[in-house]
Write a structure and sequence with these properties.
Elements (H helix, E strand, L loop, with lengths): L4 H11 L12 E7 L15 H19 L3 E5 L9 H10 L4 E8 L14 E6 L5 H11 L8 H4 L22 H17 L5 E7 L2 H4 L5 E8 L3 H8 L1 H20 L42 E9 L16 E6 L2 E9 L2 H12 L6 E6 L2 E3 L1
Length: 373
């Protein structure tokens, strides 16, 4: 790294507010970001490459919005095979005052992996502070494209996408649209499983640069694994790409209608620049869940750790020993939670314990057994 970590951290914190602007409320602005492009092919398959699949699905998705959602204004970060920087993609979404940002990708694993031709499944990512090996490796691979840019260390203020140390800076940030991003991610992931028939690899969190620098609810979709010949064939086929595009569209439509957001507005309100991010308050201290202890307002904080399309039996091995476990239905999916706390601070103390078993766990607020935002 050519610049100090402190300078990079200050760059992240101080520059985000400047990216926001005053937005018109007439259109529902959707920015679709087909990942990679031009000299950056992305992950390679046996017959095609990631950049081609990403653009194919994004273009079909744009047509669905034009046809089925009259008030939607769709913008693609690239409409052909050309190179766009990571920063340029985020800048476009911010400049166009997008309501949501969807970055589309195809996943892959290392060429030496014995599971390379068998691994499969879709996952949707939101910006997160979880640095699990799997999620971080995916983010590192996608962020690596910045090295194709001239003098990238200057543009990205010394951030090194290959260095684990660089990602420590993200722990000083909290995305102000986190709840909305998670709701959008859950809706899209649900449809990728139900409509497109993808294996459910879940909603995850990782420090993708395009998600860090966007100022609206934002997700990154990994459609499936291009290194698996069968999945590559599906994604590149007319029928498969149709299903993937339709699944993402369905998820956005459900999100807008509030189908996965009990007690929340159907569409994220347009906001002015967020205040300076605050560090997370979670610690490693072990805490015993306090059952049914509620605040004066009836709000109970719980740790959501798993989403499943069908109910699991009590004491299922899938819970990895967590007990007691509760669940609630949301958007046709079953969401599983652990613990019951009267404050966010109490829940954050218990969160590391759950993250050791489920790295994508996060704290939610509930009232009368329903999630609220």
């Amino acid at each position: 790294m050519t610049k100090s970590p402190l300078r990079f951290i200050l760059f992240l914190i101080m520059s985000l507010p400047a990216l926001c602007g005053v937005m018109a409320a007439d259109d529902f602005v959707v920015v679709l970001d087909p990942g990679h492009g031009g000299r950056d092919a992305g992950a390679l398959g046996q017959r095609t490459n990631e950049k081609t699949i990403n653009l194919l699905v994004a273009q079909k998705l744009a047509k669905l919005f034009d046809k089925k959602m009259p008030d939607a204004k769709v913008i693609l970060t690239r409409d052909g095979d050309r190179f766009v920087t990571l920063q340029g993609r985020a800048d476009m979404a911010n400049r166009k005052h997008a309501d949501i940002f969807i970055s589309i990708h195809a996943n892959s694993v290392d060429a030496k992996s014995p599971a390379r031709t068998k691994v499969n499944g879709a996952a949707v990512y939101t910006l997160g502070l979880d640095r699990s090996n799997t999620n971080l490796s995916v983010a590192m691979r996608e962020n690596e494209v910045m090295k194709l840019e001239d003098d990238y260390t200057t543009v990205y203020e010394g951030f090194d996408p290959s260095s684990t140390e660089s990602y420590i800076a993200f722990e000083m940030m909290q995305h102000k649209n986190m709840d909305q991003s998670i709701s959008l991610a859950e809706a899209v992931q649900n449809q990728l499983v139900r409509h497109a028939g993808r294996k459910n690899n879940g909603v995850r969190q990782a420090p993708f640069w395009v998600l860090v620098r966007t100022t609206m609810p934002a997700i990154l979709v990994e459609l499936d694994f291009i290194c698996n010949p069968a999945m590559e064939k599906f994604m590149a086929s007319p029928a498969g790409s149709d299903k993937l595009a339709q699944a993402i569209y369905n998820g956005v439509e459900i999100y807008r209608k509030g189908g996965l957001k009990t007690g929340a507005p159907a569409v994220a309100p347009r906001r002015k620049a967020p205040a300076n991010p605050e560090p997370e308050t979670a610690s490693e201290e072990k805490t015993t869940p306090k059952q049914d202890k509620q605040s004066d307002k009836g709000i109970v904080y719980k740790i959501q750790f798993m989403t499943s399309p069908k109910a699991l039996p009590k004491g299922s091995a899938g819970f990895k020993g967590l007990s007691p476990v509760d669940s609630y239905k949301d958007g046709g999916m079953i969401k599983y939670t652990y613990g019951s706390y009267s404050s966010m601070a109490e829940a954050n103390k218990a969160l590391p314990k759950v993250k050791k078993k489920f790295s994508d766990a996060f704290v939610i607020k509930t009232r009368d057994g329903k999630r609220i935002k």
